[in-house]
Amino acid sequence: MGRVRSRKFCCCLPVRFGVFCSSLIGIVAGGFFSIVLWIEVHKISTGQILLSAPTNIVIWIAAFSFTFMLFDALLGMIGCLFRFRRFVNGYAASLVFDTLFNISIGSFFLFQLFHQDGADEVTKCVDGTTGDVGDVKNWACQKGFDVLRIVVVVLFVILWLFEIAGCFIVYDYVGQLRDEQEAEQALSMPQQQIAVSAPYPATTYRTPTYGGPGDMEAGKSPYTFTAPANAYGSI
After folding, report:
1. What pTM, to 2 d.p., does this model score?
2. Is residue 141 part of a domain?
3. Can you give 93-133 as a three-state secondary structure string?
4. For residue 171, which phi and psi values (nearest 5 degrees)?
5. Is residue 18 a contact partner of residue 6, using CB atoms and an 8 Å limit?
6. Does the residue 122 lie in any domain?
7. Total domain count for the chain?
8. Contact 222, 211 (CB under 8 A)
9. CA dist., res. 170 & res. 17, Å (int)
């Protein structure tokens, strides 16, 4: 393999290590959240929990998304460990698609989260407490719900930033693999050119000339019937 300078991210870390970490995080996160979400999908399908139609749709789509992330990360891990450029290319393209998809789904989820007052959640939190204690608990539950929404926003933003950074790192590693392939081809190019452009052994062809008694002295084969002894009319 040709010698190519390893590309870095965060000033000193090789991009191959970044792809390994990105795919490892994708395997862990994708596996965990896909299991959790598919359990929720099962509960929704069997009627164990009742949610609004938009929330059900989000859960279904998120379950497929994290399952796709799991298999995509496995593809990236194999490509990173064995330097399979096609696998890393597929992982890079899938990671971009998955990032855009997660941003879309997360934005829709945040929209739903901030456009509902959380009355049901607050009521469950208060749990029938009345009087002054109920008012205090209601205030605490309402404030807790507001803080929860802010925390969810921060977590989503951090996740999106990590995914965007991962896209740049993976594509940088794709460029490094391309440079290594070109360097390897450049090293093998001179040998191929020598094998193709090597001159064939020179072969000298002599065109025989005929006609005259001087041909014998010149070391050339004369035409038989031009000799004086074989001439027409000779005895």
Report:
1. 0.66
2. no
3. HHHHHHHHHHHHHHHHHHHHHHCCCCHHHHHHHHCCCCHHH
4. -70, -30
5. no
6. yes
7. 1
8. yes
9. 10
Q: Which residues are CB-contacts of 122 (< 8 A; sequence separation ≥ 6)?
A: 138, 141, 142, 145
pLDDT tens column, 77-134: 999 999 888 999 999 999 998 889 888 888 887 887 777 655 555 555 656 555 555 5
Residue 91 lies in a domain: yes
* One-letter identity of residue 220: K
- DSSP assignment of 146-213 equals HHHHHHHHHHHHHHHHHHHHHHHHHHHHHHHHHHHHHHHHHHHHHHHHHHHHPPPPP---------ST
Six-digit token string for 154: 């921060």
Q: Which domain holds residue 95?
A: 14-126+150-181
Place of tokens 């990032």: 99
In this prediction, residue 23 carries a pLDDT of: 92
Nearest Cα neighbor of 164 from 96, 102, 79, 77 is: 96
Contacts of 38 (CB under 8 A, 6+ apart): 63, 67
